[in-house]
TrEMBL record:
InterPro entries hit by this protein: NAD(P)-bd_dom_sf, Sc_DH/Rdtase_CS, SDR_fam
Membrane-spanning parts: none
Protein name as annotated: Gluconate 5-dehydrogenase
Family: Belongs to the short-chain dehydrogenases/reductases (SDR) family.
UniProt signal peptide: none
Pfam families xrefs: adh_short_C2 (PF13561)
Gene Ontology molecular function: gluconate 5-dehydrogenase activity
This protein's UniProt keywords: Oxidoreductase
Entry EC number(s): 1.1.1.69
Length: 267
């Protein structure tokens, strides 16, 4: 089954590296025009956008904004409007994580993370939905969440809370905007190998990580990007208001020991 997004235009936040970069590239290779968002001007993002435009025969562009600032988000969509005629797909991917014990967490860190991981997707979704409604052709909004929207982890309470809020926003937006043909879907990755989390994975031990994941291996960015293309396509036209976990069943593997022998079970 060939999936095509030809004629569609997408905006991907946090497209300068990691999952976001692979998402943006995969959308372009599926035929979509793509706007790459980055927090700061980066030559490598411009180069990637130009290269994909030539290789894929699509239109690409770069928009720059610090998503912690609502005014910057407004300005980013003005940048987008100056380069593209419409928006059919919004990928709310940008986010960050840091670690603090809950009782010691600085207020400024709590607020900073909420601004980028929860508030920014809300503001971006508002902008996209208004444009999609005006065009009258529907659209797709993908909120990149995390397994931590369900499974909390010590030291990142603010991250888990933000992602759980984003999961609820996904459901609420799907209900409100469904009548306009706008689908809103959550995509929650588990352990994915990126340059951002490589150090953490190595600290925990790659072999340990692999053993904790029922499928037996840490995922790759392509595993998330491929699902993204599908969710943005016509093949997923009846999927909205739900969250898809791309984690190799990692979030379900809490009991990490084998079943007791039969004689211990009273059978």
């Amino acid at each position: 089954m060939e999936i095509t997004l030809k004629g569609k235009t997408a905006l991907v936040t946090g497209a300068n590296r990691g999952i976001g970069a692979h998402m943006a590239e995969s959308l372009a290779r599926a035929g979509a025009n793509v706007a790459f968002h980055t927090r700061k001007p980066r030559d490598e993002v411009n180069d990637t956008a130009e290269r994909l435009a030539k290789e894929c025969g699509v239109k690409t562009g770069v928009v720059v904004a610090d998503l912690s600032d609502p005014q910057a988000i407004d300005d980013m969509f003005e940048q987008f409007d100056g380069q593209f005629e419409q928006i059919d797909i919004l990928i709310n991917n940008a986010g960050f994580e840091n670690a603090h014990a809950l009782e010691d967490m600085p207020r400024e860190d709590w607020l900073a993370l909420m601004n980028v991981n929860l508030n920014a997707p809300f503001y971006c979704s508002q902008h996209a939905a208004r444009r999609m409604k005006k065009a009258g052709q529907g659209g797709v909004i993908i909120n990149v969440q995390s397994v931590h929207d369900e499974v909390v982890r010590k030291g990142v309470a603010h991250y888990s809370v933000a992602k759980a809020g984003l999961k609820t926003l996904t459901r609420a937006a799907a209900v409100e905007w469904g009548e306009y043909g706008i689908r809103v879907v959550g995509l929650s990755p588990g352990a994915i190998g990126t340059d951002i989390n490589q150090e953490d994975n190595e600290r925990l031990g790659i072999d340990n990580m692999n053993s904790w994941i029922p499928l037996g291996f840490i995922g790759e960015t392509k595993d998330v990007a491929g699902v993204t293309v599908f969710l943005c396509s016509e093949q997923a036209r009846y999927i909205t208001g739900t969250t898809l976990y791309v984690d190799g069943a990692f979030m379900h593997n809490v009991m990490r020991y084998d079943m007791r022998p039969d004689h211990d079970l009273g059978v």
